[in-house]
Specification:
This protein is α+β, with helices and mostly antiparallel strands. Helices cover 23% and strands 16% of the residues. The chain has a single domain, classed as 2-Layer Sandwich (Alpha-Beta Plaits), CATH 3.30.70. Bound molecules: iron/sulfur cluster (2 copies). One iron/sulfur cluster (SF4) is lined by residues 27-33, 55-56, 73-76, 78-79. It holds the Pfam family Fer4_7.
Length: 98
């Protein structure tokens, strides 16, 4: 996405990086997560799960911004996202300070 100007606080904002977890055997291959990911992080794999569907796979792991949209859209609760381990530790430390 291209902005017409740079936000004033752009240097203070850290973009989170998500870790994607896929429960392949729950997936029904609807592809909602693949189609609607704003960062085009996922694709359907060539493999079959126990139900005979192609579950998603992560094609660009460093591009996930942990927006959780895939998680919210999945009708089978087959995908969820956590922050990468180091970011999670930093987040917990911040909460501990408050
Ligand atoms: S959390 Fe957002 S950016 Fe990451 S894979 Fe899901 S939809 Fe894409
Ligand atoms: S939205 Fe859920 S069920 Fe649909 S392809 Fe993605 S992981 Fe599978």
């Amino acid at each position: 996405m291209k902005f017409w100007r740079k936000p004033f606080d752009a240097d203070k904002i850290k973009i989170p990086n998500g870790e994607i977890h896929i429960i392949a055997d729950r997936c029904k291959g609807c592809s909602f997560c693949v189609e609607y990911c704003p960062k085009d992080v996922l694709e359907l794999s060539e493999e079959f799960n126990v139900k005979g569907y192609h579950p998603p796979t992560v094609k660009k792991p460093d591009d996930c911004v942990a927006c959780h949209l895939c998680e919210m859209l999945c009708p089978e609760f087959a995908i969820y996202v956590t922050l990468k381990e180091d970011e999670q530790t930093a987040e917990l430390a911040k909460e501990g300070e408050q």
